[in-house]
Specification:
CATH topology: Rossmann fold
Number of strands: 10
Structural class: alpha/beta
CATH class: Alpha Beta
Helix content: 25-40%
Distance between the termini: 41 Å
Shape: globular
Number of helices: 10
Strand content: 25-35%
Strand order of the largest sheet: 6-7-8-3-9-10
Largest sheet: 6 strands, mixed
CATH superfamily: P-loop containing nucleotide triphosphate hydrolases
Length: about 260
């Protein structure tokens, strides 16, 4: 069990290098992710944003040949220490993927799935309702909880996936391009939800949409690739500062569309 010892930040990345076999996908990453804020990762395709995101809940462990050098601290403790259970980490650090991926089950059973396999013995209906309310979906589905999740629209399916992540009471929510498959109206609904959830959770958001990063995030990190195609951090700071007055010309070039 990783215990909370660092009240100001939920993740602290120190000299992180990440490898897929012999290929170094990330090099020398140093970052601090604060609590109850929205932290955006931006940069061109292939620069390692999603790889970095998956380092935070050890999803990369599932890839043969993947390995980490350096430290990723979660609540002040080493996320990759031998005694840490990756399955427990994935409950405490929720993940929302690029495309909505509901299970082939009812709306109710999608949300109930995590608590059930985690051994929850309380009122599961109460857990489902609370998660759906927090995901701003309850009023739309409360009368059809037994229907297939596939009957929902794309935006509703993504909010259902967010509710599914919330049902196990995570401490952090990771989001990998959560709006890329959605129309503009559904995108705005998800963005509103992200802002609301940040009152309770640290949220780390990967996005290619510069306007989205500027609209919803509190802090932004810009990554790019070197000659060997390894991703590295160019700069990080308050989002308003990154977009209005970046310190590095490469950041300015990317944000204004002259690069990437």
């Amino acid at each position: 069990m990783v215990q909370a010892t660092a009240p100001s930040e939920v993740f602290h990345v120190r000299d992180l290098n990440f490898y897929y076999g012999m290929f170094r996908a990330l090099r020398g990453i140093n970052l601090a992710i604060p609590r109850q804020r929205i932290f955006a990762l931006i940069g061109p395709s292939g620069c390692g944003k999603s790889t970095l995101l998956r380092c935070f809940n050890r999803m990369n462990d599932l890839i043969p040949g993947a390995r980490v050098e350096g430290e990723v601290l979660f609540n002040g403790a080493d996320l990759y220490a031998p005694e840490v259970d990756p399955a427990e980490i994935r409950y405490r650090i929720g993940m929302v993927f690029q495309k909505p991926n509901p299970f082939p089950k009812s709306i109710f059973d999608n949300v109930a799935f995590g608590p059930r396999i985690n051994g929850y013995t309380g009122d599961i209906a109460e857990v489902v309702e609370r998660a759906l309310r927090r995901a701003a979906l309850w009023d739309e589905v409360k009368d059809r909880l037994k229907q297939s999740a596939y009957a929902l629209s794309g935006g509703q399916q993504q909010r259902l996936c967010i509710a599914r992540a919330l049902a196990v009471e995570p401490e952090v929510i990771l989001m990998d391009e959560p709006c890329s498959a959605l129309d503009p109206a559904a995108t705005l609904a998800i963005e509103d939800l992200i802002r609301e959830l940040s009152k309770e959770y640290a949220i780390v958001l990967v996005t290619h949409n510069m306007q989205q990063a500027a609209r919803v995030s509190d802090r932004t990190a810009f990554l790019m690739m070197d000659e060997s195609r390894s991703g590295f951090l160019v700069e990080e700071g308050e989002t308003e500062e990154i977009f209005a007055n970046p310190h590095d010309k490469r950041t300015e070039a990317y944000i204004t569309g002259r690069y990437g």
